[in-house]
């Protein structure tokens, strides 16, 4: 049976693709998983003292680490020796990947997913930022340089030995299987990210409408978004007949979408947004009170 399976693999379409592309994709996945483990241990267990899926996707992956790993392994030989050149190259290129990742995600979903603006020092009363627009910071950049040296000198040889254990046809098959799984995960994640943006936009529009409509009412509390929602819910509960069906339905929709929004804030507690500042602050307050 094994021989028949092996024969099928050698004649199947998966053998038509370049094995080097398969190795590159599988390497991307390896670094994404390693990055996910580091994030879970560093942020989740050490700081939050509980398990938090820090990956952007639903699976155990942090793609930005995968891209960083591919960039490191793609460095020309001239940037790999001596070691201080490799160290500085890792700092520059990995920091560039993180900065571009932050910028792209912000433009796509109107949110700043991680924020290093708190990384700064004060010398003789003068504050010196150790970050660039909160997207990247000096500490991470130095760690990227160290990781680059480790990857080139130690990890890369191990990866090459690992791939050498398997025939090319099996690497191609693994590439296809994991590519399909990643595509499904990515589609589902994008859908939930869109829901996150939709939730924040709807909350923003709803509160602006409520302010215009109920600002003169004695029962409407306008000190914070939490109190605004609480006063509206209380009034609906007591006098539902005074509200339209569409208005009540919107309130119910917020509860359904809120769980997804809270999930993203649990994964990225430093998330901020200029467009949805009030709704993000409202969600963070709810999570904090719990």
Number of separate helices: 9
Biggest β-sheet, characterized? 2 strands, antiparallel
How much of the polypeptide forms β-strand, as a percent range? under 5%
Average of pLDDT: 83
Count of individual beta strands: 4
Low-confidence stretches: 8-16
Gross morphology is elongated
* SSE run: HHHHEEEEHHHHH
The assembly state of the depicted protein chains is single chain
Radius of gyration: 25 Å
Strand order of the largest sheet: 1-2
Secondary-structure-based class equals mainly alpha
Approximately how much helix is present in the residues?
55-70%
Report what the structure shows.
With 290 residues, the protein is mainly α. It has 9 helices and 4 strands, in the order ααααββββααααα. The chain has a two-stranded antiparallel sheet with strand order 1-2. Strand 3 and strand 4 (136-137) form a beta hairpin. Helix 2 crosses helix 3 (63-73). The chain is elongated and about 70 Å long.
């Amino acid at each position: 049976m094994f021989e028949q399976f092996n024969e099928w693999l050698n004649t199947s379409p998966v053998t038509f693709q370049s094995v080097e592309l398969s190795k590159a994709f599988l390497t991307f996945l390896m670094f994404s998983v390693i990055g996910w483990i580091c994030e879970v241990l560093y942020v989740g267990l050490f700081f939050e003292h509980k398990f938090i899926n820090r990956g952007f996707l639903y699976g155990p992956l942090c793609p930005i680490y995968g891209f960083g790993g591919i960039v490191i392994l793609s460095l020309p030989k001239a940037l790999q020796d001596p070691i201080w050149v490799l160290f500085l190259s890792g700092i520059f290129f990995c920091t560039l990947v993180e900065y571009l990742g932050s910028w792209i995600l912000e433009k796509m979903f109107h949110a700043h997913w991680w924020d290093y603006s708190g990384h700064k020092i004060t010398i003789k009363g003068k504050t010196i930022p150790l970050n660039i627009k909160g997207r990247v910071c000096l500490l991470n950049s130095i760690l990227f340089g160290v990781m680059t040296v480790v990857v080139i000198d130690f990890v890369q040889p191990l990866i090459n030995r690992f791939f050498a254990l398997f025939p090319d046809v099996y690497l191609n098959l693994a590439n296809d299987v994991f590519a399909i799984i990643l595509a499904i995960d990515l589609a589902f994640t994008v859908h939930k990210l869109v829901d996150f943006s939709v939730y924040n936009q709807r909350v923003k529009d709803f509160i602006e409408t409520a302010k215009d409509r109920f600002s003169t009412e004695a029962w409407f509390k306008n000190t914070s978004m939490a109190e605004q929602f609480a006063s509206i819910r209380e009034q609906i509960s007591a006098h539902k007949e005074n509200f339209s069906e569409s208005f009540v339905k919107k309130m119910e929709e917020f509860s359904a979408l809120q769980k997804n929004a809270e999930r993203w804030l649990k994964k990225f507690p430093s998330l901020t947004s200029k467009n949805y500042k009030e709704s993000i602050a409202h969600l963070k307050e709810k999570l904090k009170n719990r």
